[in-house]
Design goal:
Blueprint lengths: L7 E3 L2 E3 L2 H5 L2 E7 L4 H17 L6 E7 L4 H8 L5 E2 L5 H10 L8 E5 L6 E3 L2 H8 L2 H11 L2
Parallel strand pairs: 3-4, 4-5
Antiparallel strand pairs: 1-2, 3-6, 6-7
EC number: 1.8.1.8
Protein name: protein-disulfide reductase
Keywords: NAD, Oxidoreductase, Repeat
Length: about 150
């Protein structure tokens, strides 16, 4: 999905996001260090992401941070196993503006069809909280109807 660019960061350093190209689903996670709900949800999302990708990479997530300064942004992404942009990267703002009508607040996890970027659900957070690991199969089913 070229709309996300090809220049990302990960905890290992700069990357072109090779798993993004082969993922069965893509998540875009909007969050911030200052948000208590984000601080509560992020560990659950890390656990979900790790389990879903345990045997083979099926889900890639791109983090779009809403932090007010670079120091807090770096603190936020330091434990995240998925992709994120440099703090000042312009592409993250383009992604935000493209999908902002689907964001009802943070944390927000949009689940996208990796072939066309169409939103499958803007309720990724709630689905994980209710369905646990079953959320992934639910999203795949929803994708087949869109």
């Amino acid at each position: 999905m070229d709309k996300f660019g090809t220049s990302f960061q990960s905890v290992e350093g700069p990357t072109d996001g090779p798993n993004l190209k082969n993922a069965r689903l893509v998540g875009v996670y909007f969050g911030a260090k200052w948000s208590q709900p984000c601080q509560r949800f992020t560990p659950s999302l890390i656990e979900f992401y790790t389990k879903i990708n345990e045997d083979i990479q099926q889900l890639e997530i791109i983090y779009i941070g809403m932090d007010e300064n670079e120091e807090k942004y770096k603190e936020t992404v330091s434990d995240m196993p998925w992709l994120f942009y440099d703090f000042k990267e312009f592409v993250k703002y383009q992604v935000y503006y493209e999908y902002k009508k689907h964001i009802q607040g943070i944390p927000c996890l949009l689940i996208l069809n990796p072939n066309n970027g169409q939103v499958i659900t803007n309720q990724g957070r709630g689905t994980i909280e209710k369905e646990g690991q079953g959320a992934f199969e639910k999203w795949l089913t929803q994708m087949s109807f869109k």
